[in-house]
Structures are given as C-alpha cells and as structure tokens.
Amino acid sequence: MKRSDLSFPLHLIVHPFDGYWDLKYDGRGRVRIALIVLGLVVVSTIVQSQYAGFLVNYNDPRQLNSIVQLLTIVVPFFLWCVSNWSITTLLDGEGKFKEIVMATGYALVPMALIYLPMTVASRFMVMEETAFYYLMLSVASLWFVALLFVGTMTVHQYTALKTIVTMALTVAVMGIIVFLGTLVASMAQQMIEFVVNIYRELSFRT
Amino acid sequence: MKLHACLLSLSAAALLALGLPGPAFAESAPYESYNYDSWSDAVPAPAAYLPEKSVSGADLGVGDFVEPSDIAVSARGLLYIVDSGNARIVVVDGDWRVKSVIDRFERDGQPDGFSNPTGLYVDEAEQLYVADSGHSRIVVLGADGAFIRTIEKPSSDILPDGFAFTPLKVAVDKAGRVYVVAKGIFEGIMQFDGSGAFIGYVGTNKVSPDYAEYFWRMLSTKAQKAQMVLFVPTEFSNLDMDGKGFLFATNIDPGSREPIKRLNPSGDDVLKRFGYFDVAGDIRYRSAVGPSRMIDVNVRESGLYSVLDSSQGKVFTYDHEGNLLYIYGGKGSQRGTVKTPAAIEQLGDRQLVLDRGRASIEVYAPTRYGSAVNKAAGLHYTGDERQAVPAWKEVLKLNANFDLAYIGIGKSLLMERKNKEAMTYFELGMDRDSYSVAFKRYRREVMKEHFGTALTILLAAVAAYALWRLAGRRLLRGGRSAGPPPPWTSSKAKEG
Questions:
Q1: Of B39, B432, B491, which is closest to A55 when you measure between CB atoms?
Q2: Is B493's pLDDT higher than 50?
Q3: Which CATH number do you get for residue B415?
Q4: So where does this one cross the membrane (chain A) (predicted)?
Q5: Beta-carbon separation of A54 and B427 below 8 A
Q6: Is B489 a member of any domain?
C-alpha cells in the first residue's frame, strides 16, 4: 500500500468530481482502503455511543452492544452495494461491483474523520454548546450523502436526475432484498421443522 | 444416590444464581414497592408505607358502613367518613374515637336528612359541605352539625332545560367559592359563589383529536357516524384544595397524559410536570391491566400530593415539581390491600385509604424510608437544600436507585461551589441541565487555574516554531531541497 493510497481519500472528499473520476479511470481507488474506512466508521460509532459526553449521550449503557452496532453499519453498507449494483446493471450503469464498494466506502470518509474528534470535544461541552456537536454530526451525514451522490453519478456515468432516481430505487431494492431474505429464512425454517417433525414422528412410532 | 444429591445441589445453586424475586426489605408488605428510574424502567424500591391496621364501622362501634364513598380530614384533625349507604356522616378524632354521628339536621324547624351523600369537604371554619346526591343539593352544616344553608340546582342560561343536578364531590376555597363535580357534566367543574349562585365552569378537560378516528369519520356514512361513540370530554372524578387556594382535580380518562390537574382561579392547569415522565401514575403497565385511573387526590404537607389509582389500588405520591416519590398499595384480599378504593386522606402522618368494597379504612404508616423521603422532599420544597442533604443521604442508604436524592445532594454541593462533586451527583441522578451548570463552572475554574501554564507552553511552542522556521530558511537558501510534489498532482502532470 502506497502513501498516495492513504492520502487519496482526503483529496477525494474535497474534490469529489476529480476524485471519483480518478478512482474509476486512473485506478486510484483501493477496495482495501474502502473497507478500512468502513471499519473506522464502525469503531468511531461504537466509541461515540460509549464515550460521548454525558450531555449528548442518551444511550442506556446497559443496552449498548458493539456487535449490533457493527451489524447496523456493515449490513446496510453491503446491502446498498448489492442493490445498487443490481439496479445499475439493469439501468446501463458503467460501474463494476468493486467500484461501487469503493465509491460507497470513500464516501464514508467524512464520518470517520468527524465522529472521533466530536466525541472527544463533546466531553468538554456544556448544554449550550452541544448544538455545535449536533451541527457537526449533521455536516458529516450531509457530506456523506453528497459524496455518495457524486460517486454514483461518476462511477455509472449518469446524469444528475438519473442518479437521484437510481439512489431512490436502490433504497427500494434494499427493502425488497430484506423482505425476500426474511421470507426465505422463514420458509427454510418451516421446511426444516417439517423434516425434523417427520423424523421425530417416525422414530417415536418404531 | 450420589448423583441425585449432586443434581439437587446443582439445581439449588442454579436457583440462587438466577436470583429468585422477593425484596428482603418488603417482607411485611402485601404489595410490591417500586419506582421508575430515569430510563422509565420500573425498579424495586423499599416500601415507603406499610399497612398498620384496618378500621371498619363495627370497630368504631357505630355499626358497619354501607358503601362509604368519601373521607375528609379537617384542619382540627377530625376525620369525617361519608357513609353513603346509611346516609350519615361519622366524625372520628385522631385516636379513632367516635365524636359524633350526623344523620339528620333541622332545617327551618323541619327535620331533614341525607340521601346517598357521596362527597364532603370541611373548610377552615370546620363547616361541612355535603354533596347530597340523592336530594340533588349541597348541604352546608356548621361545626356543631346545625343547618346553615343549601346549594340547590342552579338556573342559568348556559344550562340545558332537562338538566339534572347530581353533585358527587365538593371542595371550597378560602374565598368561599364552592367547586362541585356533578354527574354527567362534561363541561368541567361547576363553580358557585359564596351565596350559592352558579358562576360557571372551570377547568374543562380538552378532547384531544385522534387523527385515525378523524380519518374513519371522513370515510364513514351518516348512519355509521350516528353509531359511533361521541367524543365528549371526560368527567372529573375528585377534587381537593391546596393551601394556596389552587384546586387539585383528577379525571378518569384512560390514556390521558394529564389525569391530574392543578387549576388556578381562572381555571388553567398549572401543575408542574418537571419529572422524567408524565404525572399519570403507572407509566408501564400490561395492556390487560391498562393505565392508572385516578379516583382521588390528597394534597399533603410541603407541596406533596398523593393520588389514588382505582384500577390497581395503588397510591402514587409526587412532590411539588411532579417527581414521583414512591408507590405503595395494591388490590387483593390480604390485610393492607384494597378491593374498591374510593378516597385517600392524611391523618397525622398516617395515610388513609377508604375501601368502599370492604367498607373499611386502611391505615398506612410511613416506614423509615418513607419518612426520610417525606422529610427530604419537604426541605427541598422550602429551599433548604443544605439541610436536606442528611435526609437524602438516609434515603440513598435505603435505596441507591433514587435519582432525586442524587440531584438533591448535587444541588447542595453546587451551592457550596463544590462543582466537581456536584457533577458526579448530577450524573448519577441523570439531571443533564444541572450537570451542565456544574460543568460550566468547573470548566471555568480549571481554565482559570491553568491559564498561566497553558499560555507559557503556548508561547514557548510559538518561539520554538519560529526558530525552526528561521533555521529551515537558512538551510533552504544554502542548498535547494524541495520536497516531492503532492502525490495526486503527479499523475495529472504525467498525463498532460
């Protein structure tokens, strides 16, 4: 891994159009970096919910679960990537799955950058200053959405309108995947139950 | 055999490890004591009041009560029991000796009596206001039981023609205005002036719009609409007057977030609700049981008030800011539980709950914990935060889950400018606003203390940086050594 691989995401988040172009056509993106960013976001979210200042931390410490927090970030991430790939394949998108993962991962960089410092800063804030904390968190989220928009647009070579439509469809497809997944799981469970019951019945009869 | 013993001990160990429910401190209470923490979870708490005895009419020597519906304690410490079924009022002193039984009085030379009296209020001059529901009137009697006057069915433009006046509960303020909860009156509490003339309604319960219901109404036909339930405001269930002339009123409105109101003279609700959750009794309940139904309220010393929940037979006590202090009581057939609770009063330091179903009065005595909470809450009410600290510490000794105690101690520490300690206590009590105040002061303190050191370090750092830059420029002038160009420009440069 070269030093430029590490500094490239920082360039990308401030020059998204250039950055995503280079990511796609100059091969500057690395899947590994995207996954590291994802990991950083997970870690900073966990740290935030555990160690953010008392005035901004409304989490019940008895109900914090790092595994659940990890899953609530990692699962939607890959769900997004898969749905986005599925929908863009049908809608003449030019992006490969690898590029979608990279685009999404690199879009998360502002979150990874802002969450940790704000967690530290929140411990030194009084009530009136917490507005600043929430402002910065909103900035991180908006920045992420904007980057995701530019990333999708560049990677698939879409127009702005088509990108918005695609993103909305991606969210819908995420829902469909979750629905189908639950359906399959529930059916599989019933089928297994059925077989187990027959086996039990037979074994009791003999 | 050995295996069996082994299994037995194992299961015993498992039982111990699981921890069977059963708080050790509430052994003699026939109900579970609990309170809600700042997460709105019910957590066990020591019993604040324990049943002391049960008093029936036979115990007092006046024959059994029949469907008693109200009790009142006067300023002189006399207890008045409204024995509805026997149409009489039994007056008892603080030692449970019967002073008198009022079942008839002389009105204009004619003997008169009650018919199904349901409510009673005793004012400061020890005058009795009896809601004589069977006779559709309110009877005012003197301290000696002599007839003074009646308040009859009012006539007013705002009352409909076929209006039946059935007073159920009554309260009187210092100015002599009479407040009446009457049956079938949804407009609010009826208010009469000193001479008995109807003034108007106060404190109407508002109907909150239900948008789902509204939507169905839009879709349904006229015939369907006619069959639907009418949405009328709920009736009030009971009244009490506090020392400042504010009217406490309860209403039975399942699902209401404000079943308890404190009405000022112009009829606005001014109850303070600064607690973590609604002043509405149980905030967590099984759907089969349903929310609390407030049947009576009792204003106590130093801003405390207790409300009686008729669906569970529980008594909820709040302080003047709307913090839930303790919960006790319950339904059942054991001594100390009630069947059909109807009214609550305070006699000395004892709490009395009138059980209409069993026609008796349950007497509850405060425990060490209850007394400590009452004392601390009283000192907090009068603003003696510092004197309240020992009482709060006593409370914490018995119940480490009591958030209010931490906040009380924190407030005292804040006054003593012990900001760091105050922060710890406010965090334990989950009081974010007070924590913020303490933290602000503490932060300023620390900054003041370390300002000199920080500035010295900063100046030294600036000086070091300036020196380094200076030395760097000297070297630069000597031999050219430019750093590599930024990595992302290099590829572009190559392309171009």
A1: B432
A2: no
A3: 1.25.40.10
A4: 33-54, 66-88, 100-120, 132-152, 164-188
A5: yes
A6: no
